[in-house]
Amino acid sequence: MSSVSSLSVESLSVSLGERSYPIHVGAGVLASREHLLPYLAGRQVMIVTNEVIAPHYLAALKQTLAGADLEIREVILPDGEATKTLASVERIWDALLAAGFNRRCTLIALGGGVIGDMAGYAAASYQRGVAFIQIPTTLLAQVDSSVGGKTGVNHPRGKNMIGAFWQPRAVIVDTDTLRTLPARELSAGLAEVIKYGLIWDLSFLEWLEENLAALRALDEAAIRHAIRRSCEIKAEVVAEDETEQGVRALLNLGHTFGHAIEAHQGYGNWLHGEAVGAGMMMAARLSADRGWLSEADVERVAAILIAADLPVTAPANMQAGDFLSRMRLDKKNLDSRLRLILLEALGRAVIRDDTEAELLQRLLERFPRG
Hints:
Layout: E1 3-6, E2 9-14, E3 21-26, E4 44-50, H1 54-65, E5 71-77, H2 86-99, E6 106-111, H3 113-125, E7 131-136, H4 139-145, E8 150-155, E9 158-165, E10 171-174, H5 183-199, H6 202-216, H7 220-240, H8 255-265, H9 272-289, H10 295-307, H11 320-327, E11 340-345, E12 348-352, H12 357-366
Helix pairs in contact: 2-3, 4-5, 4-7, 5-6, 5-7, 5-9, 6-7, 8-9, 8-11, 9-10, 9-12
């Protein structure tokens, strides 16, 4: 991974050999032609966005692309996690086919993680694979889902169960887009930022503890540092383990519990980051039950989640059996063994498939409900 600066834009690279790509981070980078046009595969461009994002940023993106002799089309989808389905992806395929787009077309995902995942999966599967670019407009997408090439859709029985690994040609992070982000969505994104500190970098976690108020206030310097460091960590992990055969699974701290919450509550009722926040709290408690974290560590995890306005309790309507039935469908499981991401210490996560059933059952029965 390398890092350079150009004017107000900072760039780093996800190192994957011939499929390496840059992440450009900066205020106003959406208007920068030099950070977008070089990554188009050809003249045909399909912008994929949704009804919430389009009024804010679609015209600005089209202005950046204007004058480059491009054939630009768009597909505007409904908003929300509940729309992350094959039916929505089919609308993207339909638009590509109706426009007669060929294998040298480029899809541009303009939106949050839902749009990025669906546009990426459409790109991975259209004519067996075409180019796409991520322009994430939520904090969660900027620090997590836009980087690493995971694409796909949800199934009623499990989150992200249908999909493909398909890397973008570039990720363009305009921090100005966070100005229109609702506070609840900002908090959801902070869950993924906090995750990086918990699993990988204790000093980053300590920085977050000191700067949560600045992040929630969208202080430019704080936001840029949080996004850059989060992307640096994810780029390191993805470069080492692109298809999640090993260390990349660490990025799923809290996600096994969180995905169970999302599926049980109905996609969109709990935001992904909210469910991950509660899931990380559950993982911290289970880590303490195994003797790895102290009570002070667990309280520290709770404190930073609360400071980010994230839940630290499970849904009131979920019983232990509800969690277990959903968790058994988790993609990380191997040979029917439940694999969990736990914390040996703050800043150091591990993948374990040896959690005693009784210990997990006790956690799920006794964990606070809200």
